[in-house]
Inverse folding.
């Protein structure tokens, strides 16, 4: 279920601005993705970063297209509004998982001298995309989307997809990254201190 209403010229101006900003974001992500693809030897981190860029491009594209549609017609189309919310949450949760993987990969390399291979990273990203898309879709079946701040579409904050999927993902990402980088810092500090003593 989507709440759709008519909007004035100020909303159309805001939608147009968001469309332009989305275009800039897409260009920057494409440049970063291109630089990764040009590498002769790619590592697991490159896979995670490339997946992050692709998810960013997808979310920005859907966001920009929805804003452009709203700017042209002056109202939020129910189907496109729900689709934007679905793709946006899928992409953002994928981005959460990508930065988490980068922090875990760095932690494993520094703390245990273990390396995630390029092939393993491909498998992990494939699994992440499937899980994020599937869970988001299932959770969105009973979740309603609406125009937020009269500009973009998103699920209601008390909906299943936000309460049981989006927010837990965000919290888990923050805590895992804090743990990994704190351990990296203390491990590196310990190694440096031991080296100075020798």
């Amino acid at each position: 279920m989507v709440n759709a209403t008519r909007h004035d010229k100020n909303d159309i101006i805001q939608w147009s601005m968001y469309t332009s900003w989305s275009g800039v974001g897409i260009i920057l992500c494409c440049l970063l993705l291109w630089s990764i693809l040009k590498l002769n030897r790619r590592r697991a981190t490159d896979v995670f970063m490339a997946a992050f860029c692709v998810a960013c491009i997808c979310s920005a594209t859907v966001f920009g297209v929805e804003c452009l549609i709203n700017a042209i017609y002056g109202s939020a189309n129910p189907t496109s509004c729900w689709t934007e919310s679905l793709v946006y949450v899928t992409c953002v949760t994928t981005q959460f998982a990508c930065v988490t993987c980068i922090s875990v990969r760095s932690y494993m390399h520094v703390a245990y001298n273990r390396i995630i291979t390029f092939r393993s990273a491909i498998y992990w990203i494939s699994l992440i995309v499937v899980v994020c898309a599937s869970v988001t879709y299932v959770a969105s079946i009973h979740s309603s989307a609406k125009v937020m701040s009269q500009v973009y579409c998103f699920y209601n904050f008390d909906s299943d997809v936000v309460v049981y999927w989006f927010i837990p993902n965000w919290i888990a990402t923050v805590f895992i990254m804090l743990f990994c980088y704190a351990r990296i810092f203390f491990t590196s500090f310990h190694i440096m201190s031991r080296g100075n003593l020798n």
